[in-house]
Amino acid sequence: MFRRVAICLAFAVLAFAFAGTAGARQRHQTNPVPFAHTPCSVLDNGPCIPSYCSVLNHGPCLPEIDYPYGENLQLTILTVPPEGQAEKYRKPDHDLDTIGDLFAALRACWAPPPPDDAREGMQMSVRFSFKRSGEMIGAPRLTFSTRGIPADTRTTYLNAINASLDACLPLKFTGGLGGALAGRPIMIRYVDNRELAKPAGNP
């Protein structure tokens, strides 16, 4: 009789210890979602980051955040700034500390070809990266140009892009921006939106 009671007590102790260990493991399980980006549950009182997951989704489900810039930094530079955006084409008078500062500096650098060598509506895109020091890593790589354009016109615009960037470099980054930009691809699309006089003899 006492033997059966002792065996039952032993099993009960083992079961309790196993349950406690499992509970501890569950409590100390690492959350794969970064703490600062843990999405809300429909039952949470917050504060937490809003999530666009369905209430029928069992998760984990990350929130959709509309970041202003993608992995590739992309910028369009118009030869003639849009009305009311002249400030965005003025180089900051301080060390570049934000992406907005960088874009303004790059816009201010652009010096298009003279009208006699230019073509209205011409577009050309280049890709390059910066070092922490504000110097360029290698030469800009041509990724796109308007189709049907003579080779000498493409060369003229590419030379103008290289000369414009060379005249501005090295850019002066703050330590934080330099570290964030180092090696990151930057894509610039140049658009010549000037109204150029048509050559004589053309309709």
Give an overview in words.
Keywords: Signal. Residues 1-24 form the signal peptide. The structure is a single chain. The protein has a domain at 74-192: Fusion Protein Consisting Of Minor Coat Protein, Glycine Rich Linker, Tola, And A His Tag, Chain: A, Domain 2. Strand 2 and strand 3 (136-145) form a beta hairpin. Residues 24-39 and 49-70 have low confidence and may be disordered. It is built from four helices and four strands. Helices cover 31% and strands 15% of the residues. It has helices at 2-27, 99-109, 151-168, 175-181; strands spanning 73-78, 123-130, 136-145, 186-191. The protein is of the alpha+beta class and 203 residues long. The longest helix is centred in the N-terminal third of the chain and has 26 residues, at 2-27.
Question: What's the layout of helices and strands?
Answer:
Elements (H helix, E strand, L loop, with lengths): L1 H26 L45 E6 L20 H11 L13 E8 L5 E10 L5 H18 L6 H7 L4 E6 L12
Parallel strand pairs: 1-4
Antiparallel strand pairs: 2-3, 2-4
- Give the overall pLDDT as a whole number: 77
Which strand order does the major sheet show? 1-4-2-3
Percent range for β-strand residues: 5-15%
Gross geometry? elongated
Write down the CATH topology of one domain. Fusion Protein Consisting Of Minor Coat Protein, Glycine Rich Linker, Tola, And A His Tag, Chain: A, Domain 2
> Architecture of one domain, CATH level 2?
2-Layer Sandwich
Keywords: Signal
